[in-house]
Amino acid sequence: MRPVFVETRNYARFMEGLSALDARGAEECRLIVVDGLPGLGKTTILMRWATTSGGVYLRAKTEWTSYWLLGELLAEARVNAPHGYEARFKACLAALGERAQAAAIADRQFAVVIDEADYVSGKGKLVDTVRDLADLSGVPFILVGMGRIRDNLTRYPQTASRISRYVRFEPAELEDVQAFLAAQCEVPVAPDLAGFVTQATRGFNREIREAIVAIERFGLRNPPAGADGLSLREMAGQHLINDRKSSQPILVPGRPQ
């Protein structure tokens, strides 16, 4: 499988959310919430964006505290963390200010990504720390989580009012699946098999990757006969993926479903 990044519709939704920061009506609206079910590519997209843009990527932990968060933020910024909450907080503001200034000079958008942010959204002090960092540094924070992050943040009106955009990741549609297959699969895939991959995987990225591995394994041993690529009929009866809910194997049928 070719390690190629695919700009899916979810990627486009995220980039639109970033663009909304430039058009926000209030200067304090510096938060973006990205949510959606597991397996839709949130971590892949956000980690890649942080890496290529020079942003900061952090993964929240179950037992995270504000002090721990500040320490990880300073470690990511390659700054020695001083002792004491106030000293760490001031050091974080200084580090964020320097990174933001460097990004502005390079004409890049700078932000802090906090993945697994459900662990943050349920703790009032952590939420307040993130809000304070965003307000005082002027740096956007992107909170990435699953469905409950929205409900959790409504408990903190001062923070919820600062959210510039909610970006919901959705399952991949046929167009996305075809893009994954074309970019990552080393075996050409016919439209009917691509359609079944979309149906069988329910648009979840993890299952799409598993399907690509199965298609490659079969197709490299049995090259497709047609110019369109490996077809549904050619791969009939082969194991494609395991069903996410039942864990039962999903086999490729002989004709479209």
Automatic annotation (TrEMBL):
Record-linked Gene3D superfamilies: P-loop containing nucleotide triphosphate hydrolases
Span of domain ORC1/DEAH AAA+ ATPase: 28-152
InterPro entries: AAA_22, ExeA_AAA_ATPase_DNA-bind, P-loop_NTPase
Any one GO molecular-function label of the UniProt entry: ATP hydrolysis activity
Superkingdom field: Bacteria
UniProt-recorded name of the protein: ORC1/DEAH AAA+ ATPase domain-containing protein
Species annotation: Rhodovulum steppense
